[in-house]
Amino acid sequence: MKLLVYALRLRALARQAATWEHLGPRSSQHPGERCWASTKAFVTRSDLLFRACVTPRIMRPDDANVAGNVHGGTILKMIEEAGAIISTRHCNSQNGERCVAALARVERTDFLSPMCIGEVAHVSAEITYTSKHSVEVQVNVMSENILTGTKKLTNKATLWYVPLSLKNVDKVLEVPPVVYSRQEQEEEGRKRYEAQKLERMETKWRNGDIVQPVLNPEPNTVSYSQSSLIHLVGPSDCTLHGFVHGGVTMKLMDEVAGIVAARHCKTNIVTASVDAINFHDKIRKGCVITISGRMTFTSNKSMEIEVLVDADPVVDNSQKRYRAASAFFTYVSLSQEGKSLPVPQLVPETEDEKKRFEEGKGRYLQMKAKRQGRAEPQP
């Protein structure tokens, strides 16, 4: 009964938030910018960037796990929606062939602070670089406690989009350039573009194997916690092209990674970070996708899970099953009080599992060194 009353209160607050769009424009801290509280935010061109303001959204019980922590996949989907809006708007800002921006890659995303049921998520996005055929979008997520007014940054993400023609989905259009206030901004953006392009090429065929089920696996082994989810792609999952939204794919990937982590440590778990998500190929409406997850590495208090997405075009005999996306998710185990707990150590059995464990250890130590480097005071 208490949960029902709480849900009704949240619904009333959501309806109240929805009425904000009729109140007109809100002030912006950035000169030359305007935003409206609506699902399709209105923006004008600033001196450098396009900025999108997305309607504040109240986190509901179905957005969270049993402990009340919002699923990482829910946040990833909101991030992708904001990125898709601003990049599609920018790519159609000049006269020419109309297009929709498709997600190509998500850089490493850290979950800086947990978000809980009843809090309001504020998602903002801005374009930080454009190449001839791609758009870099920076997205920030703030959580607000509407009872106390406290706000905190929960996520920062960088996404890359490519504009696909509405007339021919295989045709990539040119992106309108942005004007930079400083030459260094363009040069830094070009370096980021070249780096992500190189990494995408390196990872495209790196994860060609398939997660196979094992009978009667031992606890703490890779086989014991590995999980798969099969999903039929429907119209509600897709863009105007009839291809799956990147946010839908990321949400499903996070769900599978969460199941793997929960099976391994059998406690409350939350997403700590997501390594670069690479979208290798488009997924068409009507495909059956298999999202598979397996644990690759454990430190004392974190778990790395590799997630693979394979698409099977069951209505098209001319195309075989293919790898559509891949990523590494990092989870942590939490106590009932929300404090991090030690996780059971993974026991790799096969040579491939031992190899993936060492690769995961290398990624873990590399990110640990980066965090320590940022934390050190500058002389």
From TrEMBL:
UniProt KW keywords: Cytoplasm, Hydrolase, Lipid metabolism, Repeat, Serine esterase
EC number(s) on file: 3.1.2.2
Chief location category: cytoplasm
Signal sequence residues: none
Enzyme class: hydrolase
A GO CC term attached to the entry: cytosol
SUPFAM superfamilies: Thioesterase/thiol ester dehydrase-isomerase
Record field: compositional bias (Basic and acidic residues): 352-362
InterPro entries membership: Cytosol_ACT, HOTDOG_ACOT, HotDog_dom_sf, Thioestr_dom
Catalytic site positions: N65, D254
Gene Ontology BP annotations: acyl-CoA metabolic process; fatty acid catabolic process
Domain of life the protein comes from: Eukaryota
GO molecular function, one term: long-chain fatty acyl-CoA hydrolase activity
Residues annotated as domain HotDog ACOT-type: 49-167, 223-337
One family name in Pfam for this protein: 4HBT
Localization of this protein: Cytoplasm
Chain segments carrying region Disordered: 343-379
Matching PANTHER family: ACYL COENZYME A THIOESTER HYDROLASE, CYTOSOLIC ACYL COENZYME A THIOESTER HYDROLASE
Protein name: palmitoyl-CoA hydrolase
Organism: Vulpes vulpes
